[in-house]
Amino acid sequence: MNEKKFYLEREVYPAQLDVLPVQWSEIFAREVPLAVEIGFGNGEFLADWARRQPDWNFVGIEISSESMIRLQKLLHREDINNVLAVHHNARFALRECWVEESVRHVMMNFPDPWPKDRHKSRRLIDDNFAEILAGVLMADGCYELVTDQDWYAADAHDVFSRSPWFEVGGIELNPQRPVTTKYERKWREMGRSSYRVLAVRKSFRPLDRWIKDNDMPHAFVEKEIQTADVEALYGHEYHEGERRFVVKSGYKQLGRDMFLLRMVTKDVDYKQDFFVQIKRHEKGRWIVRLDPTIKPYRTPAVKMMVTKVAQLLSPEG
Ligand SMILES: C[S@@+](CC[C@H](N)C(=O)[O-])C[C@H]1O[C@@H](n2cnc3c(N)ncnc32)[C@H](O)[C@@H]1O
What we know:
Helices cover 27% and strands 29% of the residues. By secondary structure, the protein is of the alpha/beta class. It folds into two domains: 7-201, Rossmann fold (3-Layer(aba) Sandwich); 218-313. Strand 1 (34-38), helix 2 (44-52) and strand 2 form a beta-alpha-beta unit.
């Protein structure tokens, strides 16, 4: 038994890294084919896949914290060392955290179909998702979907058929796969069907990333800042197009020339909650920058917020 290892060590926190996209081969310390499973659930499929292909690296993406823990316990228990995981929404994570043309296979087993029309925007597969896949998959890399919903398979098939970057075969009924998920086996035992869509990337589409560089946003204020100046920002809301921020609360560090503001930013529908420092840099000059305790992704809303806060604190602000 490996007593020194903690099982929760397989999670990677891309926002904490100074440089994005993530260089997965550096983290794994080997340059081999990379595969991704989106929404790995109890992790059984991913662990099995990784065990069968020890000469590949695997990254799972999940939004459920419980699934993150389950997968890591499983990997630890079975001593599987070629899998890492990211706790995030797959659309954002794939677009911002993967090197272009770096993935050999993206797998999605039984995604939540969100059948109701009013929940349609929660479905992962749409034209924008196909564009993201055309950016991260390498030439001839494939996207594989297995679902228990015939209409969902048909929708996905339509998306990839009209996409200029993919070649897609027909919808396969009840595919025989060497690895299956718990959900799939249960479904089969009930005599129900499953459907597979396999799309192969034929041409590359550059990613429309939100995070375009690795600069740490900061801005200077050319005056002495008083508590009242910072207090005046509380509750302040500001937006530019689909990027917005609100100043939730503020704190002053005892005995130091530093304030912390708790900020919430939103890029379209992507929300982040973190702190910004307002700190004396030198006499008559203060700096506004991200506090390192909770690092947000450096999205356009985050950058816009730092510049705007400095502007509001400036003499002319
Ligand atoms: C119906 S379950 C299927 C789980 C597993 N793949 C299986 O076949 O047993 C869907 C999984 O996708 C995850 N999920 C849903 N939306 C997601 C998203 N946008 N990004 C990443 N994971 C997501 C859910 O947390 C859940 O674990």
